[in-house]
Amino acid sequence: MISSKTQELEVKLEKILLEEHVELVCLEFKKQGKSWLLRVFIDTPDGVTLDDCERVSRRISDYLDEADPIEQAFSLEVSSPGIDRPLVKPKHFERFTGERIQIKLYRATNGKKAITGKLVEFQGDQLTIMDESDKQIHNLELGQISKATLKPILTF
Q1: Which long-range contacts (CB under 8 A, 24 or more apart) does 1-4 make?
Q2: Does residue 87 sit in helix, strand or coil?
Q3: Domains of the chain: residue spans and CATH
Q4: Which strand (E) or helix (H) includes residue 24?
Q5: Using one digit for the tens of pLDDT, what is the confidence trace for 4-62?
Q6: Please, is 40 exposed, middle or buried when counting C-beta atoms within 10 Å of its C-beta (0-12, 13-18, 19+)?
Q7: pTM recorded for the entire structure
Q8: Which of 13, 36, 46, 149 is deepest in the core (most CB within 10 A)?
Q9: Dihedral over alpha carbons 109, 114, 116, 121 (to 10 degrees)
Q10: CA-to-CA dists, residue 152 to 64, 119, 127, angstroms
């Protein structure tokens, strides 16, 4: 499945999940060993339950069986985004402003290709992160980021 097909599938699944009052955080389609996996991360304002995953999995399976948009045989996995949730869409960065995140960059900026720290501000497609290792402020565009995840500090 090529990137444009992934985007088309994402648009269709967002519509289906909207009917279920569930947000599509992101989806991944990748090879694992000899087989393919379609992983769908979902969220709700109250968090994700096992029942949510089962319900959404059935809806997505029904759509995929009918529309057959993926040529390869694959397994479907529906889950919550987890504690280290991916930050993909602008609204994710808006929601988690003030939180600890980790970003990986396509190219090094100020000698760094990965930064962990506080997401200080997000506007439009611009974000400001304070690197926790040296307290340096980095102003970046979303287009510079290859991967971003929430990285909360857990205390027990």
Answers
A1: 1/29, 1/69, 1/70, 1/71, 1/72
A2: coil
A3: 4-79 (3.30.300.70), 86-150 (2.30.30.180)
A4: strand 23-32
A5: 778 889 999 999 999 999 999 999 999 999 999 999 999 999 999 999 999 999 999 99
A6: buried
A7: 0.84
A8: 13
A9: 40
A10: 35, 12, 18
